[in-house]
Structure formats: structure tokens, C-alpha cells
């Protein structure tokens, strides 16, 4: 392991407290946690000013491993708790991490309203296209035609594009990355945390155990190869025809806008309300 | 910044307004809610007043979100509250359980309407009493208080915050449509006479902090996020450091502590009021708006020669067993009138065990119970 990474682990992980972790060997969650730590380290934020809040799922276990102010909430509700924290103490940098089911099935309503409301939060959504923790049932991002524990004959529903949903709902910053394109991911997370306003990073990740095995991609390498072969940068996609893009997805920054942020607007309300 | 209390010493107020003012007086500076009759005025008043005292009001996308937001704000160190009625209270249950398990202080107001489901939105009821106690899953203690006058709405809201802060537990404040929409004069105590309790924050350096310490009071000190005490909060059963555990001994210690911290404080948690109980041989046990009618019925019964008295329950849970028991031992007859099918009546019977004659009187038609109805029941056997 390169020295820099080992050092970072010692700096940020609760390495003497809470290991071994619960994730399967080869899980994309570890890659994402690494990216998050590097982004935070590069931003020079202190551990005390960071809140990492999650929902429930494999993704939801991330906060317990890191030495921040950490909160493991209820399934789908991470953004609601995060909203309360941020409004109560705007000086904190509040980051949420959620699964695809967590953020867009049970938590879908909170997600679109958080995007619309524009509280200065970051939502990291780990899209492994399946309910990992509960054993591989289909999620809102499971592709049409694929197999899941509750779609044994093939899935007949259609998948959400989480990033595009976030753009439509008004998120100030939206990025999409994968656990294969790690350097891009580091940059996306850094930009999202830095962004003033509600920022979203959708991360395509591998659950080779629950999704891959049922869909002829039963190991992390095949799943990462799939990411490599199907991801196209936003810049490149602009020059491609819709036909060429049919089985592809874009990675990079999908939206980056300046919008009035909630806490600053509320400060104005306090002035208007006066004495 | 505006002063928290209204400038006048007395005010003609609606119950819901008094709850909002009580919350501000208690130090509540964060409110999240979702509109619902008959609780909406609490949101409306706080949307105007919170920003004037440097607090925050937010209308969330639903009651699940409102509950999540107030827990988040409380973990960040700010006293917080939400308010709703039956349907919204049902939606809040999962996150109320989260507040129980994470020992996050917060106040949840439920202005009870009549009926189940959407029910009778503009009528009173008391059907959510057992839900307030048992609505969230698992076996967690919780504090439930009930208000019966507009003055109560102010005073008891302050006490709800105090108990919540001191015992690190969500407190459910039950009002009903009658109390919340009645207007009457409230005489405000002067600010220095209002007792305010704040959660105890750690005084040890961060490296010594044990966030869920099994100490003698059963109530661990609570650090706010962002104050240098980095720790983990989870709805999973956790050890003293806050990390998930399934170790039977740790699970037992944790669950027992949640109960123990309340048991040790019953003397101040269990609040009742008595009226003409000294020489009573017939008693009414009532709470909420029904207690008001009962008070009048007791006076009327006395004028007709019946030595009646009233035990008004403000704390419904933990059920004030010993205080109720005293009344059961003293009286030959006890009446429990309620706007449900007999939820507190069952609790009274559980304590009674055949000692005395306990009768119930119930209305579930969305109408409040009048003094005459209670009087009729009191005199029935004479
Ligand atoms: C209210 C509620 N319903 C259901 C569950 C069970 N549950 C736990 S995790 C999960 C889904 C996890 O999938 P996802 O959000 O995609 O995250 P992943 O495990 O894949 O990281 C479900 C349904 C729960 N904990 N709470």
C-alpha cells in the first residue's frame, strides 16, 4: 500500500475501534470511502467540522468507520436529519451517504425536496443497482430485464437515472462517477463538498455478490470492466450520436449552478422578521 | 433580537399559540413541521416568531422528514420540536423510536383529532393515548404528557422540554382539538420564575468522553456535534461508545439503562393535579379537555351532597401507578371518562386489581364530554 494512503487511513479511520468492517471483499464502498477521505483531506477540513450522516444499507455503515461526527439514521431519511443539523449549525460541513434504494425508493421524496430546497449539503449516492444489505432485491435503479432476488423471471420495471433526477429537481451541483474512474471520483467529491448549495454525486458501484452474481458479472473485475466500457465523459458524450450513447452512461459534472442557499435566505428572513 | 416572551403579562390565547410560546420560553430554537388540522397554528406562530429570536422554522415535505430534522437539530445542540395530529403522528413513529434509542431530546406535540385514519379532522378525540406510549416498535420507554387548559399548554410545554432535556428522551405532548382551539386568558409567569433545564454537556476532555456511559443516573452527558467530541450516533443497539453491538450483556445493559433513568426520576416525571380530593369518596380520573369538564362536574356533585374529587393526570406515561393507587384506595367509586373506548381506564384497572369500583365513560363521536354527562355518571349510583 502506498505510504500516503496508509497515513490517511490512520488519520481518518476509527482503525483501533470498529474493524473488521461489514463489507464483502471487493465491494465498491471501500473505494468510495477512500475517495471521500482524500477529498476531505485535500480540502483541508478538520474532522471536528465534518458530519457524515447515512441512511440504512451497506452504504449506511460507512460513517461508523470514520472519525468525524457520525450519524447512522433510519432507512431513507439521512437527508432529513442532515437538514436539521445544517440549519442548527451552519458552520458544519454536512455530508450524507446513501444507497440507491435508500435515496430514491424509500427516501425519494426527501431527495427531490432537498434538491429543490437547496440547503448546503452533499449527497453521495452509491448506486449499486440493487438492495445490497437485504439480499439482492430490485431497487429503483435495477435495469429492465436484469435479475434480482425479487425479480427471478427478469425485471419488468424501468430504472431511474439518479443524477438526472437530481438535475431536474434543482440540485445546484450534480456529478456522476464510478468506482473504476477513481481519480475523477476524487475530483467530483471534492467539488461537491466545496459547492455552496445542495450537491449530489451519484457513484456507480459494484455489488458483485447481490447484483453481479445474478447477472453474469459475479466478480468485481467484470463489473469494473463493465463500468470502463459503458461510461462516457460528459464532454465526449456531447460529440456522440444518441444511437452511440444508447447503452452508455455519462460521467463528470452534469450540473453546476449558482442558486441562493437556504441558510443565507433564512438569515434574511430573520432580518425581515425583525423585532 | 426580539424578546421571547410576549410584552404583555396576560394574553388571550388559543391553546396552540400557548404551546408555541411555551416552546420558545423553554428555549426551543428549531421547529420542523408539516401542516395538519388541528395543529397547524403551532407552525404558523413559530414561522413568525422563530426567526425573531434567532431560531429556525422549516416546513418539511412530510412528518417523517419533520421528525428527522428535529432529531438532527437536537444532535447539533439546539432544543427542537414538531407538532402534528393523528395521521402525521403515525408517520413519525419510526423516527420517534430513533430518538428513544439515541436518547435525543425533542418534543413531539400531537393535537388529537377524533377517529382513526383521516378520521374527524376538526373534532376532538383521545384515541392516540396508547399510540403515544407504544406507537414505535421495540420496547422503549417514553414520556407522554397531556394538557387540559391554555395555561397548561404554556406551562406543560416548558416542562416537556425540561424533562426531555434532563432525561434525554423524546416527550410526547398530547393536546386535543378542544384544548388547542379554545381561547382563554393566560397569565405569563415572569421569565425569572420559569424553570429551564438544559441537557448536561460533557465537561471532560474529548478523549475521555463516553457518549453512552452507563453511569449512576443512567443519563449520559450529551455532546453536540461540532464541539470537538466526535462520536457515533446510531439507531442500532450500541455499546457505551456508541458503536453497534449484539453482545447480549451490552444489549441488556443498554436497554436496562433506558428504563432505569426514568425509574430513578419518577418523582418529578409523574405530574398530576388534584382537585377536592382531600375528603373525596368518589373520584374522577381524567386528562386533557375532559379533565376540565370533570372539574366542573365535581363542584356540581358536591353541591348535591356527593363528596367528589378529581385526579387530573398530566403525565400519562410512565403511568403514575402509585398516585392512582392512592385514589383507588381512598374512594368507593372511580369514574374514568375519555374520548376513546377506555385506554387509560385499562391502565387504571390494571392498578386497581379489584380494590374498588372503577367505571368508564366513553364518547367516540367526535363530541367533547360535558360536565353534565360526567355529573350524571357520578350521581348514577346515589
Ligand atoms: C423502514 C425500513 N424498511 C426496510 C428496511 C430494510 N432494509 C435495510 S437496508 C435496505 C435496502 C438497502 O439497499 P440500498 O439502499 O440500495 O443500499 P445498499 O445496501 O445496497 O448499500 C432495506 C430495504 C429498513 N431498515 N427500514
From TrEMBL, chain A:
Top-rank taxon: Bacteria
Domain Thiamine pyrophosphate enzyme TPP-binding residues, every copy: 56-203
Record-linked CDD domains: TPP_OGFOR
InterPro entries: 2-oxoacid:Fd_oxidoreductase (IPR051457), THDP-binding (IPR029061), TPP_enzyme_TPP-bd (IPR011766)
Record bears the keyword Oxidoreductase: yes
GO molecular function: oxidoreductase activity, acting on the aldehyde or oxo group of donors, iron-sulfur protein as acceptor; thiamine pyrophosphate binding
Protein name: 2-oxoacid:ferredoxin oxidoreductase subunit beta
Keywords, comma-separated and alphabetical: Oxidoreductase
Pfam short name (any one): TPP_enzyme_C
Keyword Oxidoreductase: yes
UniProt GO BP: cellular respiration
SUPFAM superfamilies assigned to the protein according to its UniProt record, in alphabetical order: Thiamin diphosphate-binding fold (THDP-binding)
TrEMBL record, chain B:
UniProt keyword terms in alphabetical order: Oxidoreductase
Domain (Pyruvate:ferredoxin oxidoreductase core): residue spans on this chain: 280-374
Stretches assigned to the Pyruvate flavodoxin/ferredoxin oxidoreductase pyrimidine binding domain: 22-249
SUPFAM superfamilies: Thiamin diphosphate-binding fold (THDP-binding), TK C-terminal domain-like
Coiled coil: none
CDD domains: TPP_PYR_PFOR_IOR-alpha_like
Any one biological process term the GO annotation gives: response to oxidative stress
An MF annotation (GO) of this entry: oxidoreductase activity
Oxidoreductase among keywords: yes
NCBIfam families, alphabetized: PRK08659.1 (NF006412)
PANTHER family: 2-OXOGLUTARATE SYNTHASE SUBUNIT KORA, PYRUVATE-FLAVODOXIN OXIDOREDUCTASE-RELATED
Protein name listed in UniProt: 2-oxoacid:acceptor oxidoreductase subunit alpha
Species this chain originates from: Candidatus Desulfacyla euxinica
